[in-house]
Design goal:
This protein is 71% helix and 0% strand. It is mainly α.
């Protein structure tokens, strides 16, 4: 999810497409939150690790 967010950010920036930029930011933030929760030991979606 983090990689997809970064890809959408780059494509949105290069092609000047605002919706891709917005979706990329949202996916990047959600991916980072899930990664942080998984790395500190909280179960995310029933799994102990999220990556």
């Amino acid at each position: 999810m983090i990689a997809l967010g970064v890809i959408l950010l780059v494509v949105g920036f290069i092609l000047h497409i605002g919706i891709l930029w917005t979706i990329g930011i949202i996916l990047l933030v959600i991916g980072l939150i899930l990664f942080l929760l998984g790395s500190v030991g909280h179960a995310v979606g029933g799994r102990r690790h999220y990556w």
